[in-house]
Amino acid sequence: MSKNILSIDTVALDEEKRALKIIDQTKLPGTVEILYLTKQEEIYEAIYLLRVRGAPAIGVAAAIGIYLAALEITDTAYDDFYAKFKKAKDYLDSSRPTAVNLSWALKRMEKVVLDHRGAESAVLKELLHDEAVKIRDEDVWVCKSLGEYGLSLIKDGDGILTHCNAGQLATVKYGTALAPVHLGGERGMKFKVFCDETRPLLQGARLSSFEMVSAGMDTTVICDNMASQVMKNGWVKACFVGCDRVAANGDAANKIGTCGVAILAKHYGIPFYVCAPTSTIDMSVKEGKDIVIEERKGEEVTEMWYRERMAPQGVKVFNPAFDVTDHDLIDAIITEYGIVRAPYTEGLIKIFEEKAKQNG
Ligand code: MRU
Fold first, then answer.
1. Is 143 in contact with 56 (CB distance < 8 Å)?
2. Considering the entire predicted model, what is its pTM?
3. Which of 155, 158, 242, 359 is deepest in the core (most CB within 10 A)?
């Protein structure tokens, strides 16, 4: 019998192989292939091509990736070590622009090196190992805690609509938007989960619905343009989505199409929740319009998944990977330190104060 996808690590450090271990998500749900990556170029490619994807998962992958890059540096003087480390860090950081977890994790790794100015290479490598493992392990607690807050907002049997994949496959365990469903499932609760297929890369059809079926949930995949009908039918009690970067005013960038779901939810009076670990909240960005939105190749729209090209040659294609949902469309932002409601700027500041208090 094949292994349940939920029992396989989404992203991990293989200590023996000294490699980043990931599930190749471009092959799901048809093929479960585990990749062991050691070279920076392979790790960059895996993030860019979405073999590993979802904001928290790419943060963890980058942390492990930069540790592996540090291992490649032959023992040398501190300044030379740092220069080589920084080059590798900037390279990995350029693989995807919108998810702030990527630079958040890499900055945490860089701080380890900067805080130990003058240390020997071997010592720095050991410290970087420990920080990468810590970043990965923390993600499990973060998602679980966030999931408990999310679960407090729904009840057994509810219909839940989600967009893209902000589930376990986007994190180390549980996910963000799907964490309430996974945690409820562990306690015997059943939800009716509607997964938007999520054009053009189909994270909802390929990943969220795979994950939800594997978790034993009543799962329905819908094309993105069916969400309104499902809501009108009264089948959705709440929308839960993840995000890639939340601005200080609560505007949230997430997979393209999320903003449309929020507008529909408002129209039908359905609560719309954004699940955001504090690692995804970027207080240095004032509002959504300042968030850099990744644009991807047109072929993802015109050719990918089709037997033949589905748009005429020469047509222009606009393929933004994310959109920004305005904060006034969001009923609450759920973090690992609590639920934030408008006004968001004040609420998010309080969340970071709570985080500082709990972490000493
Ligand atoms: O392009 P992707 O698949 O990396 O986009 C992922 C999303 O938009 C997720 O909703 C977001 O990263 C949150 S994952 C917990």
1. yes
2. 0.97
3. 242
